[in-house]
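User: Hey, my collaborator sent me this sequence without any context and asked if I could get a structure. I don't really work with proteins. Can you help?
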Amino acid sequence: MNLVEAPIGYANPDFYPDHDSRVRQLRADFAKYYQLQEIAPHALDEDTRTQYLAHAEGLAMRWGRHEQERFRRMWQARQAGVMGWQSGPQRARRIFDELARSREAGELPVDDELWDALVDARHVTGHGDGVVLASAQDADHRYPNLLPDTYTAATRDRPLAALLNPPEPDPRTAVERSLGAPRTGVSAATEKETDRVIAATDAALEAEEQAADLDTGYETRRMLLPREIRDAPITYRYTDTATWETRHAQLLRQVQDLAAEHANNTFDHHDSDHAVIHRLETLRQATSDAGRAALRAGIVYDDVERAYQAGRDGIYWSTEPSHARLGRLAQLTEQRDHALADAAALRHQIDTTHPEYGTAVDTGTDTGTTASAGRAQDSGEPVRTGAGADIGDAIGAALPEIADTSWAAAEPDAHAHSGPAPTAGPDMEVPP
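Assistant: No problem. I've predicted the 3D structure and written it out in structure-token form, which is a compact way to encode the shape of the chain:
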């Protein structure tokens, strides 16, 4: 008996509790129709695939064009339910749960035949409750090996996994469950015995740590380098690469966020179908334009495709960037900008509330200090020395690259240097 003829799982008419044999056969044939549609693309050869599709088409012709309108309506309702689960599983699950609660509470009368169609569509597409692993989904929701009369009207709305494997009462206490005690009728160890086992384990781990050779050779290799090399600060300037890396991060984020917005049902608040269609088309076109812009900017195709795939799965850039390095750089840049803004606000607050603790930068040379003091005396401003100079030195050491208008740097003496103006070197940034 091949797959087409075998009444397996939902394709078995005896699985359903209906009294009418024709209804049972229709429900089983629809499950068989869906199974064949799913399996046909993965058939071993072309003849088998053609056989599966032909049999599925025959079932659709039999019930979709049945002489009785009742059976045609039941078949079409199941097809519509399957399309709903395939196109928007989150929305379909939300609607199904609301209908289930309303039906159970008696708030909304739902026809039994329509409800059976919704339940069948939910089960054959593998969206029943309690599905976690793919193997469990295949075993419990796709092709379960059920015996006749295991599905009754009293348990029609219960998850299929609960019908096949009803949960047994757990005799363990909360402590025993947390410690991983076996789920059997044998009593677990007492608390005193548990404490003894934990203490013995800690002692064994401590002894192993003391006896083990914890030296991995890192310090030995490190001491082979001179101090001026192993402790030297990084002098490479990342100014040139920061611009295009920031641009690449922005473009990849746009691709991922637009694709995620298109995938998620964030347009439910629209009133008309026309607005929904227009928004979907706009998001789709924007995603394509963002992808082409990213490729034109020099981003490799694999990075753009990875951003699109992450967005298609409903993952926004803020949740998990598709490019780990660019996402981390963007995060650090944002944190740095916030820190600089907070520091600037604090300096401004100090200058406003405590002008005697000025935050002017001390150049650390006698000439600069004297020139600053002379300008302060000529303009009538107080000379920033003592505690104010210490605060300025501390802020200057912590944030040496901040260029803020409230930071009064010392100006060079006009007569101290009469040579030509300095030219821009490799370590000097020329403002745009």
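In plain terms: Confidence is low (pLDDT under 50) at residues 130-157, 361-389, 402-432. You can pass these tokens on to your collaborator as they are.
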